[in-house]
């Protein structure tokens, strides 16, 4: 299915056309669609087609082989025309399958929606009932239902619908639960909507794609189950034919006239296969995660596509030097540049702040240094990253990967998302060590504890076996820093390391970074949007706007006397303690006359 | 203009703590412990505190999204219990809420027209012609172009989305607005613009703000009085200028010291 996701980055946001194109780009789904359309067309046209009556028996001509005159697919044990029975039977099977899916989707979604929305005890009770339903083997449950209601196509339909309700209920409940707590639902309530209105006009539209996806992936399964019940004689009753009952009746002649059971068997196969292929295709198109390519496996290193290979620098170069770096995101045949020719350098023990507003390209710059921009669609199209005078981007992939967490390491914004929730923090630090150094587990663990002490975690020995969720935000970020320190890096790239933290915690984390820098001679590249943070720890600062560095210089100089108009404006917009209400009067002239630009 | 917009007395909120399905005791979280506050008419009262201090829970109780465990709240002269009995509409007409994440507070599958239509229809009961006129006024007030109406939330930047969210809050003609970190998800230059807008709207419509934030500098620039919350309690409350100049509680002092300053550049 990977073909579908690839062009997705190129797809414009609007419209059905692109969804259709995406579906067609998936060859298997397209095959499924055409096969299914052909089968559907024939089944719908059954009353018009010149077919003999499927129920007329003709004993003398029983068990004719396929391609007999007048009977293209031969006849069954009662001499009935198999082709005619097949087409009529397909119609019945499809009808039952679709109706069962619709019933199951309707009831299951209603249960899921209400359980997910109401929550609490009602949710608990409904879900435990659903669990009970799920605990029965499906065929046993269907048999039990048919046994109570009596055999017959309609009863089989009910049975299959009931059996599949849990599937829908659980899926829909999960999605509803996450939407129920979103802010727009609260907002709708404050706008005066009642619960019912919220459920059906706010929640349902967001759940609908999931319902459609679930339906498209279960129709095939339902047809198969109908066939199963009919095969056992519990579904369609003679003389009505459906695919399952044809299969069941042909079973007796399996050895003498295999075609009688093989023909409906092949039909079931084709039908279910085509529906499933199409269903997968639809799922891939509708699922936003697949669409965005988020589930695509990115390559180990960002695609590097430079016109010229840069020369290596002289030996006395800066520790880290970035020259004319250009990174973009491929979208169709175009590359949308996110970083446009950025250059800066970083010496040993120095701290450079890279500051900019959202979308300025500061994070992409940071990730580009070691080829961490997700690719596709990311591509580094120009420039060089010199580490001790050697261009990192010219090195083979394996070597670039080895630099990560080795000589250059990263600290990210939210340690809760970057730490693995299922491993203890001690193990994760130890893993960061053993990824680069050969040593046994015990030594690594001891080193991990040592690192935790370095970053100021008390009772490190005990805390090492704690899981990320057991630690506070500040402690988690300390763990993140400990992992970055694991292999004595020369450069730490910290991407908004304190943005998710409270101010009192932020102050302490900044202190820690400052201390480490002084003690270990680390070079620190700090990505941030906060001038206050820059003012506190950076020696120099580079201001980014739209992928370019507009101003670069000593922090105190830039803050006191910004040269570029953009920097001036940015700094003027930072409210400061002690200024009070005068702040608004100060910034008012900056925006007079062009309010809606925000 | 000396009445009180909001007056809450000894309000507490405890989550959990009940019995589970099999009778086991559940862990109780005391999010808000005995808070008493008053928001005067036309005033901006800021509530500052760090994550987990209970400021958002307090805000959600004020707009009726949560019910207090104990204590009394009076909103716009009416008892909150009374409002709760009358249903969500009664709350909505009295007090509105602006969320921290503007994009998440707008339903991604609805156009701005559909979003703004709901409070005008449900809370104001306007007919379609009046709604159309009012929508234009609202967009004017938050300085957004008219073609905003036919577009979807994802087409707007954070600052624009926050303007739309503010327009929705204004739609109900409520005189009291609870602003829950309204600018912390925004870039600084956008943040300044939204603060200016809020200031202007307050003048224009005579609003009272309960302004929740963790950013002391932002708080200082907009508020008349400040309440500092810590672990579910108000530890200090006072006039904004005095409080920042002479913090009394140790926690407040710590908070003010930790705030990053541009002037810090001189020290390093």
List the helices and strands and how they pair.
The complex is a heterodimer of chains A (598) and B (268).
Chain A: H1 2-5, H2 16-25, H3 27-44, H4 82-118, H5 120-135, H6 138-149, H7 153-180, H8 183-190, H9 195-231, H10 243-250, H11 259-286, H12 288-292, E1 303-304, E2 320-331, E3 334-346, E4 351-355, H13 362-368, E5 378-387, E6 390-391, H14 397-403, E7 408-411, H15 415-418, H16 425-434, H17 441-454, H18 460-463, H19 473-485, E8 491-495, H20 503-520, E9 523-528, H21 531-537, E10 540-545, E11 548-554, H22 555-560, H23 565-572, H24 582-591
Parallel strand pairs in A: 1-5, 4-9, 4-10, 7-8, 8-9
Antiparallel strand pairs in A: 2-3, 2-5, 5-6, 10-11
Chain B: E1 4-16, E2 28-40, E3 44-48, H1 55-62, E4 70-75, E5 78-79, H2 80-86, H3 88-94, E6 95-98, H4 112-122, H5 128-141, H6 158-171, E7 176-180, H7 188-205, E8 208-213, H8 216-222, E9 225-230, E10 233-239, H9 240-245, H10 250-258
Parallel strand pairs in B: 3-8, 3-9, 6-7, 7-8
Antiparallel strand pairs in B: 1-2, 1-4, 4-5, 9-10
What are the salient characteristics of this protein?
heterodimer; A: alpha/beta; Rossmann fold; five-stranded mixed sheet; 12% strand; disordered C terminus; B: Rossmann fold; six-stranded mixed sheet; globular; transport (chain A)
């Amino acid at each position: 299915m990977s073909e579908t996701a690839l062009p997705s980055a190129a797809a414009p946001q609007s419209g059905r056309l692109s969804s259709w194109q995406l579906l067609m780009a998936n060859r298997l789904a397209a095959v499924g669609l055409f096969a299914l359309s052909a089968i559907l067309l024939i089944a719908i046209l059954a009353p018009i087609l010149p077919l003999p009556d499927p129920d007329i028996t003709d004993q003398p001509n029983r068990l004719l082989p396929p391609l007999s005159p007048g009977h293209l697919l031969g006849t069954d044990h009662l001499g009935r025309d198999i082709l005619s029975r097949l087409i009529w039977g397909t119609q019945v099977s499809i009808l039952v399958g679709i109706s069962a899916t619709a019933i199951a989707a309707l009831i299951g979604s209603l249960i899921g929606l209400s359980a997910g929305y109401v929550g609490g005890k009602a949710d608990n009770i409904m879900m435990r009932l659903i669990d009970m339903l799920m605990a029965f083997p499906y065929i046993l449950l269907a048999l039990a239902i048919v046994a109570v209601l009596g055999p017959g196509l309609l009863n089989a339909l009910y049975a299959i619908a009931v059996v599949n309700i849990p599937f829908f209920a659980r899926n829909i409940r999960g999605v509803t639960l996450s939407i129920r707590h979103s802010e727009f639902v609260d907002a709708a309530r404050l706008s005066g909507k009642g619960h019912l209105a919220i459920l059906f006009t706010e929640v349902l539209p967001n759940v609908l794609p999931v319902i459609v996806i679930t339906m498209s992936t279960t129709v095939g399964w339902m047809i198969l189950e109908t066939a199963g019940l009919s095969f056992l004689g519990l579904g369609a009753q003679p003389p009505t034919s459906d695919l399952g009952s044809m299969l069941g009746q042909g079973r007796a002649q399996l050895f003498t006239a295999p075609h009688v059971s093989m023909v409906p068997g092949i039909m079931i196969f084709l039908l279910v296969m085509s529906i499933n292929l199409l269903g997968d295709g639809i799922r891939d198109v509708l699922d936003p995660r697949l669409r965005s390519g988020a589930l695509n496996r990115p390559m180990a290193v960002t695609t590097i596509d430079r016109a010229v290979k840069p020369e290596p620098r002289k030996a006395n170069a800066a520790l880290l030097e970035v020259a004319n770096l250009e990174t973009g995101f491929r979208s169709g045949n175009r590359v949308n540049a996110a970083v446009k020719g950025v250059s800066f350098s970083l010496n040993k023990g120095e701290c450079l702040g890279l500051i900019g507003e959202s979308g300025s390209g500061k994070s992409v710059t940071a990730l580009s240094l070691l080829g961490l921009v997700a690719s596709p669609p990311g591509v580094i199209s120009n420039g060089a990253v010199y580490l001790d005078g050697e261009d990192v981007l010219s090195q083979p992939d394996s070597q670039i990967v080895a630099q990560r967490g080795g000589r250059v390491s990263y600290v990210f914004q939210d340690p809760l998302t970057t730490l693995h929730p299922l491993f203890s923090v001690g193990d994760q630090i130890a893993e960061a060590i053993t990824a680069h150094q050969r040593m046994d587990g015990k030594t690594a663990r001891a080193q991990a504890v040592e690192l935790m002490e370095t970053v100021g975690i008390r009772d490190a020995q005990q805390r090492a076996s704690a899981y990320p969720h057991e630690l506070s935000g500040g402690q988690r970020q300390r763990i993140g820093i400990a992992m970055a320190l694991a292999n004595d890096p020369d450069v730490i790239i910290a991407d908004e390391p304190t943005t998710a933290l409270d101010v009192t915690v932020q102050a302490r984390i900044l202190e820690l970074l400052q201390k480490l820098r002084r003690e270990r001679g680390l070079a620190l590249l700090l990505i941030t949007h906060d001038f206050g943070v820059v003012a506190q720890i950076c020696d120099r600062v580079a201001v980014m706007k739209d992928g370019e560095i507009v101003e670069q210089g000593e922090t105190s100089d830039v803050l006191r006397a910004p040269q570029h108009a953009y920097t001036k404006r940015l700094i003027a917009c930072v409210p400061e303690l002690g200024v009070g209400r005068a702040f608004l009067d100060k910034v008012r002239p900056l925006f007079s006359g062009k309010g809606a630009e925000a | 203009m000396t009445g009180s917009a909001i007056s809450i007395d000894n309000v507490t909120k405890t989550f959990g703590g009940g019995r589970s399905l099999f009778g086991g005791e559940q862990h109780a979280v005391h999010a808000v412990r005995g808070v008493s506050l008053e928001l005067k008419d036309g005033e901006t009262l800021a509530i500052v505190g760090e994550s987990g201090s209970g400021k958002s829970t307090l805000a959600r109780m004020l707009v009726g999204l949560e019910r207090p465990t104990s204590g009394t709240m009076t909103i716009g002269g009416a008892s909150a219990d009374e409002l709760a009995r009358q249903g969500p509409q009664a709350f909505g007409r009295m007090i509105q809420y602006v969320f921290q994440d503007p994009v998440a507070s707008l339903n991604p599958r609805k156009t701005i027209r559909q979003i703004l239509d709901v409070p005008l229809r449900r809370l104001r009961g306007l007919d379609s012609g009046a709604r159309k006129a009012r929508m234009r006024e609202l967009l004017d007030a938050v300085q957004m172009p008219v073609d905003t109406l036919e577009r979807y939330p994802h087409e707007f930047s954070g600052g624009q989305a926050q303007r739309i969210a503010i327009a929705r809050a204004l739609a109900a003609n409520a005189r009291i607005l609870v602003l829950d970190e309204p600018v912390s998800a925004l870039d600084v230059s956008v943040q300044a613009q939204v603060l200016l807008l809020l200031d202007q709207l307050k003048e224009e419509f005579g609003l009272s703000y309960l302004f929740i934030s963790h950013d002391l500098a932002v708080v200082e620039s907009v508020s008349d009085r400040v309440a500092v919350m810590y672990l579910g309690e108000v530890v200090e409350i006072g006039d904004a200028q005095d409080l920042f100049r002479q913090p009394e509680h140790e926690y407040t002092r710590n908070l003010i010291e930790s705030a990053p300053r541009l002037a810090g550049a001189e020290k390093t």
